[in-house]
Design brief:
The chain is an alpha+beta fold and 524 residues long. The longest helix has 39 residues.
Length: 524
């Protein structure tokens, strides 16, 4: 059904153009009047749709072009009435209709260029009508009242340089309008987009035809009007017929896009929540890098991705998905191009990057916003990794310092003084039991600090010191028991808990040495 309607519309359009051409064979003035009146009626219809749908239509492209084509049609009407041979304004000659033509085409082309610059913005049609009314009044005054509009046609000579340059300039403006329309094509139904693009292309061809004619009744003039009529046929198909027969393409296109945007934002928020949860549960750097890339790939439709972080001034690839280009990918990702790249910044300094690419279509603003949010979360992961590395380094330094702790020659009674060796060698079973008790006390202290449990481990630690004193243990034995217990407790524990063991164990070691020293003083 839809294809048959499209075919019928195409046949009707071709038939209308053929009819216009046949009318030119009979009388050129009749052809010109019919061609111009055809476009004027279409312009009026576009304004009627825009006016009556202004309360609920969010597509600003139509809201801007509606008033624009109303006043373009007004200038075209004056152009038609003043055309040579009509007898309405004979005193002005052929220059007046050409001036009005150029004024109308400037107004039309600039409107087509400006309309795509307002996507998604709330606009009111009444102020737009006022602006176009003022612009049209100024153009009319320049032509009819002040006489300052440049000449466009000189009888016996033909088109003036101003007319030809203006036509080329109008073509450039229309080319810019076509580019802007293409960049905003996702805001239109695809059929409407193609019809609008085709209309602009035909308008460009028509303007090029109007740069070559010498007589207002010449063949290039006829060809230009046919191109114009064809372009307005496409506008009719895009806005009038589509707006009346299948109004959802225009009136509900924004609603469908809004729903799609809401669904995408919900998916993005869910991805951010999952990534934040991964940071909380201490997911490894490789796992969270892979998770960041997978969410970025799925939400942007990318084909590949890289997660890179900076370590000691070097770029380290933490994860990759898909098949990213290998050749100089890290250097190329810093430059704008087909890849989407966002820096992870810590204290104002780039610390990593999220790089996505391989998307069939161009990346949109929402994709860049997503990449920036992913990069911010990735910065937290990089910052956590650096903090963990600092903690591990500090723990290693503490362990080294504890191992280097002097035996303590000033202690009057020690296993060394009695000629005995380290406790872990001479009494290995008792050493293991002391390590176990030390670990139990350390665990209880950590629970007390974490859950505010009202337990006292002072007596337990003192009993451990007395047991060590009975065995004639020295400071080196205390250090070895502490290090062995800390190593067993930290093995397989999450990084955060391992740090807590190290902090609490450091204090316990000092207390245990104090209790052992007190025991020896009492013995002496």
């Amino acid at each position: 059904m839809i294809r048959s309607r499209t075919a019928f519309a195409m046949l009707a359009g071709v038939g209308a153009l053929a009819g216009l051409y046949l009318s030119s064979l009979y009388n050129f003035l009749l052809f010109h009047s019919l061609a111009e009146l055809f476009s004027i009626v279409i312009a009026a219809c576009i304004f009627i749709i825009a006016w009556h749908s202004r309360g609920y239509l969010e597509n600003t492209y139509l809201l801007v072009l509606g008033p624009a084509y109303l006043f373009v049609g007004g200038l075209d009407l004056l152009h038609t009435l003043s055309y040579e041979g009509m007898g309405v304004m004979p005193e002005y000659g052929p220059n007046l209709p050409t001036q009005l033509w150029i004024a109308a085409r400037y107004l039309e082309s600039l409107s087509l260029l400006a309309a795509p610059f307002l996507p998604g913005r709330k606009v009111r049609i009444e102020p737009i009508i006022g602006i176009y009314a003022l612009l049209t009044a100024i153009l009319a005054a320049m032509i009819f009242v002040w006489g300052i509009f440049p000449d466009c046609f000189v009888p016996g000579v033909g088109l003036t340089p101003f007319k030809k340059i203006s036509e080329y300039l109008i073509c450039l403006i229309l080319a810019g309008a076509l580019i802007r329309l293409h960049r905003n094509r996702d805001r239109f139904d695809q059929t409407v987009y193609r019809l609008l693009a085709g209309s602009i292309l035909l308008t460009i061809l028509g303007e090029l035809s109007f740069t070559a004619y010498v007589s207002v009744y010449g063949s290039f003039n006829l060809l230009g009007h046919l191109f114009k009529a064809a372009s307005f046929c496409l506008i009719y198909k895009a806005f009038v017929e589509t707006g009346f027969e299948t109004p959802h393409r225009i009136l509900y296109n924004d609603l469908a896009r809004s729903r799609e945007q809401l669904a995408w934002e919900a998916a993005m928020d869910a991805a951010m929540a999952e990534l934040a949860g991964s940071l909380i549960v201490q997911t490894s750097m490789e796992e969270i890098s892979d998770l960041v890339l997978r969410h970025g790939r799925d939400l942007t439709g990318s084909g590949w991705g890289l997660a890179v972080y900076v370590d000691n001034g070097r770029d380290i690839v933490a994860a990759r998905i898909g098949d990213p280009p290998e050749e100089e990918i890290l250097e190329q990702s810093r430059e704008p191009g087909p890849a989407l790249s966002a820096d992870s910044v810590i204290d104002g300094v780039p610390a990593g990057r999220i790089i996505l690419g391989g998307r069939p279509k161009e990346y949109r603003d929402r994709d860049r916003h997503l990449a920036e949010r992913l990069a911010d979360l990735y910065a937290l992961a990089i910052q956590r990794r650096r903090r963990e590395a600092d903690e591990r380094r500090r723990m290693a330094e503490d362990r080294g310092a504890m191992r280097a702790f002097p035996v303590g020659a000033s202690v009057p009674v020690s296993r060394h003084a009695l000629g005995q060796g380290p406790l872990r060698k001479t009494a290995s079973e008792q050493f293991s039991e002391l390590v176990r008790k030390h670990g139990e006390i350390l665990e209880k202290r950590l629970e007390k600090r974490a859950y505010k449990v009202g337990r006292q481990e002072k007596d337990h630690l003192q009993n451990l010191a007395e047991h060590l004193g009975f065995l004639r243990a020295g400071p080196r034995d205390v250090v070895e028991i502490h290090m062995q217990s800390l190593e067993e407790k930290s093995r397989g524990a999450p990084h955060k808990k391992a740090v807590a063991y190290a902090d609490e164990g450091r204090l316990m070691a000092l207390e245990l040495m104090g209790h052992l020293a007190a025991y020896y003083r009492l013995q002496c």
